[in-house]
Amino acid sequence: MGRIDFGRKYWLVKGPMKLRVDVRSMAITAVFLTAIIGLSIFSLMVGTITLSVSEVFSALFGDLTGFKRTVVINWRLPRIVAAIVFGAGLAISGSIFQSITRNPLGSPDILGFTSGSYTGALVVMLVFKSMSFVNIATGALIGGFVTAFVIYLFAFRKGTQGFRIIIVGIAISTLLGSVNSMLLLQSQAEVALTAGAWGVGSLNGIDWAHVIPAVLFIAVLIILAAIMNRPLREMELGRDAAKSHGVHFERTQLAVILIAVALTATATAIMGPVTFVALVAPQIALRLANTAESLAPTAAVGAFVLLSADILAQRMIPGMILPVGVLTLSLGGMYLVWLLFRQARSIV
């Protein structure tokens, strides 16, 4: 007689509202949060100026003053916070798109939303000749939302289907890639070089003035994504099943798409297009937690992936700090080849 399967373990948290917590998801999240804290402390310690653990904690809690505190608080900490929050935001955005399309290839990178944000930023830098951070960020946000509108418009035909969104998204992404190349080729060399460097995706030179508003905005978006998580999972059952549960399918789908696009566009506006985090992180979290119900493991994996990639990019080549986008592009490209190969084998 085989073992009886009692299903997954949950904790029921009672308070102003009842909350069911998946034990395995929380364990996976706790492991990644511990790793993120360890990596953060390590990143605060090492660099051109090496600090001890006690000096790092003294700087964080206000006991250390002077140049070393400036190094920790003003130079290194904004970069770490940005990597953690932007990685979580990109991962949740990828999770939403993969849920809508019901395909592991459905991520903002593949669907063209990242390219759209890049196009918006390039138009500001190269057409309107503005290098203002506020203008570039606004252009990236507008570019992302315009791309989402165009994809939704072309993919909508008596409702939207995941495969149609992917096909339209790949076509729009290819078109935007050509537009971006044309904009760069027709611009002055110095301006095009600056825009091209931004387009690689980097956290170099980021400070609190850039990080704080973006972090607050992404935090609000993550809360909205958590609220919409339950109807999003019911939509995975199909249009008719979701509507039978009281979910307004088209309205809910449009709302979660806007949240996901805003998450991608906000991160892209600050650090440029960093690809493949949104593609890889949700699949890692899904395989480890073995459930798509919770966003917490996905956010934790996304934060870990971007933070560890940024730390590796800073120290992989002595004397040179690589843009984090170069590293995620290389690792993500290998993952994409493996994913396509795996899907091709499953079809055969």
The amount of helix comes to over 70%
- What's the gyration radius in Å? 21 Å
Oligomeric grouping of the chains: single chain
- The helix/strand class is mainly alpha
Can you summarize the main beta sheet? 2 strands, antiparallel
Low-confidence stretches: none
| Integer average pLDDT | 85
Residue share in β-strands: under 5%
Which sequence of SSEs, written as H and E, runs from N to C?
EEHHHHHHHHHHHHHHH
Task: Tell me about this structure.
The chain is an all-alpha fold. The chain is built from 15 helices and 2 strands. It has a two-stranded antiparallel sheet. A hairpin with a 5-residue loop joins β1 (10-13) and β2 (19-22). The two termini are 36 Å apart. The mean pLDDT is 85.
Brief descriptors of the model:
mainly alpha, two-stranded antiparallel sheet, 2 strands, globular
Concise summary:
It contains 15 helices and 2 strands. The chain is mainly alpha-helical and 348 residues long.
Provide the fold topology:
Layout: E1 10-13, E2 19-22, H1 23-45, H2 53-60, H3 67-101, H4 108-111, H5 113-127, H6 133-155, H7 162-185, H8 189-200, H9 208-227, H10 229-235, H11 239-244, H12 249-271, H13 277-289, H14 296-315, H15 324-347
